[in-house]
Amino acid sequence: WIACVYYCISWFEGFGMNSWVYPATEEGDGEHVFLRKYTVCFYWSFLTLTTIGGSSDPETNLEYLFTGLTFFNGVFVFAAVVGNVGDVISNMNAARTEFQAKVDDIKRYMVHHRVPDSLQKRVKKWFDYSWGRTHGVDESSLLETLPDKLRARIQIQIHLKTLKKVTIFEKCENGLLCELVLKLRPQIFSPKDYVCKRNEIGKEMYIINHGKLECIVTTESGERIVVATLTEGKYFGEIALLSFEGNNRRTADVRSVGT
Fold it and tell me: Which of 118, 130, 217, 221 is the most buried (most CB within 10 A)?
């Protein structure tokens, strides 16, 4: 609309009366003349709004007033665009900044208590792997702000299909499965981390949602053998969890492989 107002002012004052207004009307094909007028007026408005300069100086009071208002609008538009871009960049980095602050706090804590370097490296690797998987989103705390029913519906939509893949739950009613879904808790294990070890007391059952795990047993000769590789949809820990004889100890080591 600034280009249109510029053309109207040029028409009001007279085309070509000075170097500021639109030049005298050109003769030729109507479509060509219209395109020429539109292009020149748009070019003038673009130069003035962006304060790049290069256009002729105004001469009359009306020209000064309109040029000043156009500069004023251009400054506000430029400030709004820069501000919005800054907000977008800040929002993009907000989660990373918050996550990095937690990592720095853990690093300082470990240094203060003289935690061995090998363990510090494992902790740092876990943070890197966790960021790659979740981008700093804590699922459990994120849903705490929602009412119980809404939180239940979301968890059912996300986890019910995974739970139905488990063999021992295939014939369970949906009501029971929905109750079990609410008991699920997400856990992340970086590559080479042990999920559980043999002879540990088992209190949880694990369902793999992403990545791979290795089941490792130790023979009588002390040799460690990978007896199974578990992928997405597989589960383990049900033996210790469902033991009715009190023998709820893990029967093998389970180690994360990664994606």
Answer: 130
Query: Considering just the CA atoms, what is the radius of gyration of the chain in Å?
Result: 34
Single out the residue of 7, 16, 81, 80 nearest to residue 42, CA to CA: 7
Averaged pLDDT, 214-231: 88
The structure tokens listed for 221 are: 């000769």
Backbone angles phi, psi at 257, to 5 degrees: -100, -30
In sequence order, the 6+-apart residues with CB closer than 8 A to the CB of 16 are: 22, 23, 24
**Rounded alpha-carbon distances, angstroms, from residue 142 to 113, 139, 181, 232, 253:** 31, 5, 17, 24, 32
- Label each residue of 217-253 as H, E or C: EECCCCCEEEEEEECCCCEECHHHHCCCCCCCECCCE
Q: How many CA atoms lie within 13 A of 192 on its CB side?
A: 6
pTM of the model: 0.53
Distance CA(32)–CA(39), nearest Å, equals 11
CA 113 to chain centre: 34
CA-to-CA distance for 27 and 15, rounded, in angstroms? 13
Q: What is the pLDDT of residues 25-56, one digit of tens each?
A: 665 555 667 787 878 888 778 777 776 666 77
Question: How far is residue 51 from each of residues 9, 37, 179, measured CA to CA in Å?
Answer: 20, 21, 64
DSSP string, 60-76: SHHHHHHHHHHHHHHHH
